[in-house]
Specification:
Elements: H1 7-15, H2 21-42, H3 44-51, E1 55-60, E2 63-68, H4 71-92, E3 98-103, H5 108-116, H6 135-150, H7 167-178, E4 188-192, H8 198-215, E5 223-227, H9 228-240, H10 244-252, E6 256-260, H11 269-284, E7 288-293, H12 305-311, E8 315-319, H13 324-337, H14 344-353, H15 358-375, H16 381-387, H17 389-394, H18 401-411, H19 426-442, H20 447-453, H21 459-475, H22 477-491
Parallel strand pairs: 2-3, 4-7, 4-8, 5-6, 6-7
Antiparallel strand pairs: 1-2
The structure holds adenosine-5'-diphosphate and magnesium ion.
The site of magnesium ion has 4 residues, from α8.
C-alpha cells in the first residue's frame, strides 16, 4: 500500500495491536460495535453458539484477522458469517477489505474488547412484549427471534401463485397456518423437486402465524423454522458445549417446528435420532411439525424406517412440476410486483424456455428487468435472447433442428428433404418457414446457424420466415393453432 492521504490512519492499522492506548481503544470499540451488530442480527442464541468465542487478532494493511478456538467453529463462521463480517468491518473502517478467520487465540485486544462489552444488545423483536424472569420464557423468546431473523420477507401466501400443480400443497399449508396441529395435518410433509416452492410455503406458514400472534399476543404460538442442516449443526454445537439439555428444551418448547430439506439428514444417524425424539415429543404434546424434502417419505431411503413411517402419518402433499400456465401466472405476478411492464410474448417465451424450476425462471426475469432499468430499453424477445443467452442455452431442451424439420414435414405431409431443398412451391415453402420459426423459438441456435441447417440459406431468409410466420399466427387462427400444436408436440 502506498503512502498517500490516509497514510497515518493506515500506518496505525498496520502497526496494529502494539499501538499505544488510544488507537487500540478505538479498535476495541469498533470490534465491540461489530459484535453487537452481529448479536442483534443473528439473535442471542445463535451468537452465543457460534460467535461469542471469536477474538480479534491483528490488523495488517487492509486485512483484519479474527480467531476462533477450533477448526469446526472457524469453518462454520467463515461460511455463514464471513461476508457479513467483511461488510461490518468495512463499514467501521473503509480501509479494511478482508477479514481473515483463523484458528487460534486472539491477542489482548480481544480481552480489552470483552471488558468493554456493554449489556446484551437489544433484541431484534424489541416490539414484542418481553416476559420477565423464567428461563423458559427467555428460551421462547429466543425461539421467536431465531425465527423472525430467518424468515424471508418475500415468501408469503400473498406472493405465492396458486395453480394446478401446487394447489393441494398450498391448501394444506394454509390449513396448518390457520389451525396448527389439527387432526390429519400433523405432521405436514411437503415434497417436490428443487425450486418448486417448498421453502416459500414454509416461510408463508411462519409469517401467517407471526401475523396472527401480533394481533392476539395472548395466543403465544412460538414457531421455529430451520433447515435440516442447521438443525444438525445446532445439535452438534450443543453437544460440544455440553448444552444438549438446553437445546432439547428449546426445541420442545415451540408450538410449531418446521424443518426444511430433511433429505440432508440421510446418513447422519445421531442427528436423525435426535430429530426423531424431538418429533415424537412435539407431536405427542399436540404441537405442529412441518417438514419438507425432495422426495416422498416412502422414497427417502436412507432415513430410518420408524422416522419415515411417522413422517408419512399426517398429511403428505407434493408440489408437482410447473405447467406452462402456472409459469405464466408466476411471471405476471412477479413483473407486476416489480411494477415493470413486460410484453406477454416475452413472458410466454420465458415460460416456454425455462420450464424446470421457478427459482431460475424468477432469476431470468429479474435479470431482464435489471437490464431494462439499466439501459432504459423496452424488453423484446431479441433483448431477452441476448441478455439471457447463457441461461437459455443451459435450458435448451435439446430439441434439435432435425427433430423440428421431421415433425413439421410429417405434419404437412411433405418429404424431409424438402426442408433443405430449394423448391419454392407454397406447399413446401410454408412448412419450411414454420420449421425455421420453431427452430428460432425452441432452440438457442443463431439465425445464421439455422439458415445453414436449412440447405445453406442466408440468415435474412430465416429472419423473413420468422417474421412471416409470426404475422400469419396473428392473422389466421387455424394456422396459429397448428403451429401451437407442433410446438407442444416438440416440447413433449
Ligand atoms: P424449494 O424450496 O422447493 O426448492 P423455493 O420455495 O425456494 O423452492 O422457491 C424457489 C423460488 O421460486 C422462490 O423465490 C419462490 O418465491 C419462487 N416460487 C416458487 N413457487 C412459487 C409460486 N407458486 N409463486 C410464486 N413464487 C414461487
Ligand atoms: Mg427449499
Amino acid at each position: 500500500m502506498t503512502a498517500n492521504g490516509s497514510a497515518t490512519e493506515t500506518q496505525a492499522h498496520r502497526d496494529g495491536i502494539s499501538l499505544e492506548m488510544e488507537p487500540a481503544q478505538k479498535l476495541a470499540c469498533q470490534w465491540n460495535r461489530i459484535r453487537e451488530r452481529l448479536q442483534a442480527e443473528v439473535g442471542e442464541a445463535e451468537y452465543r453458539t457460534w460467535l461469542r468465542q471469536m477474538t480479534l487478532g491483528t490488523i495488517d494493511g487492509d486485512e483484519v484477522t479474527v480467531h476462533l478456538p477450533t477448526r469446526f467453529l472457524r469453518d462454520w463462521v467463515r461460511s455463514h458469517y464471513g461476508d457479513r463480517l467483511n461488510a461490518l468491518w468495512h463499514g467501521e473502517d473503509p480501509v479494511i477489505r478482508r477479514v481473515d478467520i483463523r484458528v487460534g487465540r486472539g491477542l489482548s485486544t480481544g480481552g480489552l474488547a470483552e471488558s468493554l462489552t456493554p449489556s446484551p444488545a437489544p433484541s431484534k423483536s424489541a416490539g414484542t412484549p418481553v416476559q420477565p424472569g423464567g428461563t423458559r420464557a427467555e428460551e421462547r423468546m429466543e425461539a421467536r427471534d431465531s425465527l423472525s431473523v430467518t424468515l424471508e420477507p418475500r415468501f408469503t401466501f400473498q406472493s405465492f401463485v396458486v395453480g394446478k400443480p401446487n394447489e393441494f400443497a398450498h391448501a394444506c399449508a394454509r390449513r396448518v397456518a390457520e389451525r396448527p396441529a389439527s387432526q390429519g395435518f400433523n405432521p405436514l410433509f411437503l415434497y417436490g423437486g428443487v425450486g418448486l416452492g417448498k421453502t416459500h410455503l414454509m416461510h408463508a406458514i411462519g409469517w401467517e402465524l407471526l401475523g396472527r400472534r401480533a394481533k392476539h399476543p395472548s395466543a403465544l404460538a412460538s414457531v421455529m423454522y430451520m433447515s435440516a442442516e442447521r438443525f444438525m449443526y445446532r445439535f452438534i454445537a450443543a453437544i460440544r458445549s455440553q448444552s444438549t439439555i438446553e437445546f432439547k428444551e428449546q426445541l420442545r418448547s415451540v408450538d410449531v417446528l418446521m424443518v426444511d430439506d430433511l433429505q440432508f439428514l440421510i446418513g447422519k444417524d445421531n442427528t436423525q435420532e435426535e430429530f426423531f425424539h424431538t418429533f415424537n415429543a412435539l407431536v405427542d404434546a399436540g404441537k405442529q411439525i412441518v417438514v419438507s424434502a425432495d422426495k416422498s417419505p416412502s422414497d427417502l431411503s436412507g432415513l430410518e424406517d420408524r422416522l419415515r413411517t411417522r413422517l408419512g402419518c399426517g398429511m403428505v402433499a407434493d408440489l408437482h412440476a410447473t405447467t406452462f400456465e402456472l409459469r405464466i401466472s408466476i411471471l405476471e405476478a412477479k413483473a407486476a410486483a416489480a411494477a415493470v411492464n413486460v410484453a406477454p410474448k416475452v413472458l410466454e417465451f420465458l415460460a416456454h424456455r425455462i420450464a424446470s424450476n421457478v427459482r431460475e425462471l424468477e432469476g431470468a426475469l429479474n435479470r431482464l428487468i435489471a437490464h431494462a432499468n439499466l439501459f432504459g430499453r423496452e424488453i423484446t424477445i431479441e433483448t431477452t435472447q441476448e441478455v439471457l443467452h447463457d441461461i437459455l442455452r443451459a435450458h435448451d431442451r435439446r430439441i434439435t433442428i432435425e427433430e423440428i424439420q421431421r415433425k413439421v414435414a410429417e405434419h404437412w405431409n411433405i418429404r424431409l428433404t424438402d426442408m433443405t431443398s430449394s423448391r419454392r412451391a407454397r406447399a413446401v415453402a410454408r412448412p419450411r418457414q414454420v420449421a425455421m420459426y420453431l427452430a428460432k423459438q425452441l432452440t438457442s441456435r443463431s439465425l445464421p446457424e439455422i439458415g445453414r441447417r436449412f440447405g445453406n440459406r442466408d440468415h435474412t431468409t430465416v429472419m423473413h420466415a420468422v417474421a412471416r410466420v409470426g404475422e400469419l399466427i396473428g392473422r389466421d387462427a387455424a394456422f396459429a393453432e397448428q403451429v401451437e400444436l407442433l410446438r407442444r408436440m416438440l416440447e413433449g
